[in-house]
Here is the input.
Amino acid sequence: MLHIVNKSPTERNAFESCLATAQKGGAILLIEDGVYAATRGGAAEPKLRAAMKNVEVYALAPDLEARGMASAVAEGVKLVDYGGFVDLVAKHNTCQSWL
Amino acid sequence: MSEHGAIKKFMYVNRKAPHGTIYALESLEVVLIAAAFDQDVTLAFIDDGVYQLKKGHQTKGIELKNFQPTYRALEDYDITKLYVEKESLESRGLTVDDMCVPVEVKSRADLGRMMEEQDVVFSF
Here is the structure.
């Protein structure tokens, strides 16, 4: 299934809660302030790295660009545009938004 | 000098990331109002607030206003006291070189002391 996180990992526990729940083979899409979880160098990066062993992690490129973080994306995170967002939703049977 | 007596010390405490919520933009609007009244303005950026100053915002893709250039205009309003919290930068993998305007890096304790010295504190 697809998990969508739109909250900053340093402000809310949505990302952590998502990681604790997501199962092997699933996918996580980071959007809005959630894209900060896809960046390198921060305290949340080790958790991201560990998660990427089991799930695919995607981040919405326009949200990274808006925040000046496009050049700080951690290795292994796949970038998608709005069309890619729709494709991910269509590809997975179910979707959980960690609001 | 203000026409109506003493100048007050105003601190704006910014704790939210830009774009995801309206706080960052609203804070800027209120800062500019205070500046028009010649008050002693200090801006503090702590927690996710440091992301407001991360260089290179390009908001075309999300179709929202890019208000980052406004931070560069603050100097024209004599707002030059911009403080960024050290620990907040570090835990987000950022450095002072990532900031879009000249800032001073302060510890949480220093900012706490500065906060105590204010006449008015605005929380965003």
Summary: The mean pLDDT of chain B is 94. Chain B has four helices and five strands. Chain B touches chain A through 26 residues (CB under 8 Å).
